[in-house]
# Entry
Amino acid sequence: MYFSFILLGWFAIASCKDKNTNTDPPEEPEPPKISLSLAQWSLHKELFGGKISHFDFIRVAGEMGFEGVEYVNQFFKNEVENTAYLDSMNAKAKEAGVQQLLIMVDGEGNLGELDREKRDQAVENHKNWVRAAKHLGCHSIRVNAYGTGEANEVMEAAVDALGKLSDYASEYNINVLVENHGGYSSDGIWLSETIKKVGKSNCGTLPDFGNFCLKRSGNGTCTEHYDKYKGVKEMMPYAKAISAKSYDFNEDGEETTIDYKKMMDIIKETNYSGFIGVEYEGSRLSEREGIMMTKNLLKKHL
# Structure
């Protein structure tokens, strides 16, 4: 009987081990992946000056080691419905080994316009770019929430327009992203509250490190700034792309007006995964020098 008790005890222990022992280590969560893209505006002087073409931009981005490109609509505005032209862009991107990520849309009407008829027309104008983005394999279009009026009035108008445009874009699996681009949109609280009120999963933000001017004088000088670090932090919960603006650099390679380490710490805190677009707007360095300085600075703090 004593031997039987020993056997029963051994089988009970073995049974518990079989049920409770997991030899496989727990799966580690995937770390956030951040890649770098080139915003077309970084080369706007070369483009406007005729030194390179729209197609050359795609090639140059690949040669400079970027994984993605972010277009500006004005450089191919007349081709938005030209599928042959868009096919050529696809071919160039494939040849250069870059992903086409988004189109920054300007000049198609104000989505925060208080006049309903004008606002609805702006929505219609943006639909062409939704279809173009789909054709190019982009994930988003970047839009503006401009409008003239009281903050709450413009917000209400923007919520209406963004909601309509986002509903349309969802049919094409395209995101509608609002950038802090001056006026109310450069107020992080205003913009994040607007996106929250839209309440669409494909409507988000594109935080830009440098566009935080709330008011300008008649000659274009900024007279009122929003705290850039606070603004980026407020927009990050809705961010589906990021624009790393830069203007100039010191001898250590750091940006002279933006604390990139502080910005990157804010981004890391949110576990953001996706692309960060380099957007150099300085004048002291050449565009390509500024682009590479910005790229190296991002890699340093990543």
User: Anything to note?
Assistant: The first strand starts at residue 34 and ends at 39.
